[in-house]
From TrEMBL:
Residues covered by the YknX-like C-terminal permuted SH3-like domain: 286-352
PROSITE patterns tied to this protein: PROKAR_LIPOPROTEIN
Parts forming coiled coils: none
SUPFAM superfamilies: HlyD-like secretion proteins
Homology family: Belongs to the membrane fusion protein (MFP) (TC 8.A.1) family.
The name this protein goes by in its record: Efflux RND transporter periplasmic adaptor subunit
Stretches assigned to the CusB-like beta-barrel domain: 209-280
Matches recorded under NCBIfam families: RND_mfp (TIGR01730)
Provenance organism: Algoriphagus pacificus
Amino acid sequence: MIKSRFTLLGFLALTFFSCKSDEEKVEEAPTESFRNEVAATEVHVAMAEVKSFDYLINATGKLEASSQVTAVIQQAGFLEELNIKEGQYVNKGDILARLDPTEAQFRLDKAQISIRNANAEYESMKMGYETIFESSDQERKNIIDEQLKAKSGLFLAEVELQEAKLNLERCEVKAPISGKIADLKYKEGSLVGASQELCEIIGTNQLVLKVNVLESDIAMISSNQKAEVYAVSNAQNAITGRVIGINPKVDENGLVQVSIAINSDRNLLPGMNARAIIRAPQSNSLVVPKDALVYRSGRAVVFSIENNESKWNYVEVGKDNGEEVEILEGIEPNSTVITSNNLQLAHQAPVQVVKE
């Protein structure tokens, strides 16, 4: 009985060690044989290059007229004639409207009579000083002449005449600049007061796009720097512009206002929304195509190729222009990087480069 138990234990022990030996043989099988059985992933590649890199600063804003002036009615009266309508283009100096000139003309006639009377009085008083005016004492003659003009009322009459002429001229409202009429306030026949706004005149030869740029990007923007402007109404066609002003203060949101001038276009109007792209060239940057960059667990990764296998590289990303990405750290210049089929790619996976 005891001998049978020892025989059974020996058999179980032999079976256990035999199974363990087989498991060890399986574990010791080379992983290379499995890797060779996996089909290589077809990939496209590019070179990590050190070159000039255009960083694109994107910003949005509204178009404004480069010049906008209010045409003002300078004196009260009836709007006898109105020569404009909204949207009409006018040149500087064009007559926009006329007020009833009757009262202004009456004041001018009155002032002309006053100056004739004052001049007659002056000549009459001058006769009493013939000896002085015939002498060679120029200084004394000037003093007496000034006194006589003042006493006769000639000085005051001359000022009143100029004032009356000015009031008559103000019956015509003229365009202070060239541009298009906007926000017309009155109709023909209206009774208007002095210093009332007639309309706005918007200069259309040039428009200005005012955009807000992050304070971290403002150091890369300078006056006369080129920009591309895309209006919302025509987002496919770029309009060339240039930076004409940078506001020297940062607002509470960390933004700086930048003004970009563009040539006028018949399809553009003040108040339209537009987007600007300002190119800021960066020299000697290590750059890869944007398709080479993937994110794993929130970290940026670029796959390179070594010995026909993918290599996982954590990278530190710099600026991005939509097509290329600046790499600050993580890969070496002239590395071959994978640009396709890299979203699910693993480290040391076999790859096959596909040529275009």
